[in-house]
Design goal:
By secondary structure, this protein is α/β, with parallel strands linked by helices. It has one domain: Rossmann fold. It is 43% helix and 21% strand. The chain contains seven helices and seven strands, in the order E-H-E-H-H-E-E-E-H-E-H-H-E-H. The strands form two sheets. The chain has a five-stranded parallel sheet, with helices on one face.
Length: 209
């Protein structure tokens, strides 16, 4: 099993990079785990308090569960990935069934900040992007997908997203084996990563034959 960790700032284009990688690989060989699924359930708090949560701080995420799930997949065991709602800031009672695959991609803004998590990654990737470009993507996404208005998005960006990026995310770049500037537009870097994964899949297939 090859485990790939893909980090980068909010709005850097991580999801686009992951999609382009998946599109170039056999779908039956790849599983995806999103850090966003592992935000702690805040259902015990009033909605107003939940909406004030700093989602860009490592303490907001149940990394212990994510690490446990990756270890189970490495052992050949299936896991139940949580489903998290940004609108209600709670976990759903439903889960996503994930079977172990030859390649597991773990994607999220903070996945390179946790030493125990980094040790599980065979390849560590950081998706880099200009701060202005990231802000524009965040505004568009949060309005379209998370029901927020521009003022709310900008306030959150200044209060938590930007300082947390500078404190936690940007420094984690130094742990990356591969940095992908310009996100999903960097076809050269994506092709390099895909070729590494394809080589691994070839080795796996040879072992089975």
């Amino acid at each position: 099993m090859l485990i790939v960790g893909i980090a980068g700032g909010t709005g850097s284009g991580k999801t686009t990079v992951v999609k382009k990688i998946i599109n170039k690989l056999p779908k039956e060989s790849v599983a995806i785990l999103s850090q966003d699924s592992y935000y702690k359930d805040q259902g015990n708090l009033p909605l107003e308090e939940r909406q004030k949560i700093n989602f860009d701080h490592p303490n907001a995420i149940e990394f212990e569960l994510l690490i446990d799930h990756i270890k189970k997949l490495k052992q050949g065991l299936a896991i139940e990935e949580p489903i998290y709602s940004y609108i209600s800031c709670t976990r759903s009672d439903e889960t996503i069934h994930v079977e172990p695959k030859d390649v597991v991609i773990v994607e999220g803004i903070l996945v390179l900040t946790i030493p125990e998590l980094r040790k599980l990654f065979d390849i560590k990737v950081f998706v880099d992007a200009d701060a202005d470009d990231r802000l524009i993507r965040v505004i568009r996404r949060d309005i379209r997908e998370r029901g927020r208005d521009v003022e709310t998005v900008l306030k959150r960006y200044l209060d938590t997203v930007k300082p947390m990026h500078e404190q936690f995310i940007e420094p984690s770049k130094r742990y990356a084996d591969l940095i992908v500037p310009e996100g999903g537009n960097n076809t050269v870097a994506i092709d390099i990563l895909v070729s590494i994964i394809e080589k691994h899949l070839g080795i796996q297939h040879n072992k089975k034959s």
